[in-house]
Amino acid sequence: MVYSDTVLFALMMVTLVNMARYFTALRSLIYIMREAHPLLYQQVDGNGFFTTHGNMTKQVRLFHYIKSREYHHHHDEVFTGKCERVRELFILSTSLLGVTLLAALIL
């Protein structure tokens, strides 16, 4: 019993740390996007992205932009590197969240 609680607690901590890394990288990407890609910054509502009154459809636009890897055609290497990092961290965070939820149900 103690072992399963420890494993679940460790999984939750790793998941939380990686989600924090993801949100930090996303915040950094939006900051860089202001100069590197101003049109996309306006399309995804850069100023209001992390606010409670943020437009969800505009936030989904950034998700599709990164998911379809449209950033590969951009000229700024810092911007494309940040987009790639956000994409990798999103995949890692969602995978860890799925494993953590599965472990919580099993244990």
UniProtKB/TrEMBL annotation:
InterPro entries reported for this sequence: Universal_stress_protein_B (IPR019598)
Topology versus the membrane: Multi-pass membrane protein
Database matches in Pfam families: UspB
Keywords: Cell inner membrane, Cell membrane, Membrane, Transmembrane, Transmembrane helix
Record NCBIfam families: PRK04960.1
Family to which the UniProt record says this protein belongs: Belongs to the universal stress protein B family.
Protein's UniProt name: Universal stress protein B homolog
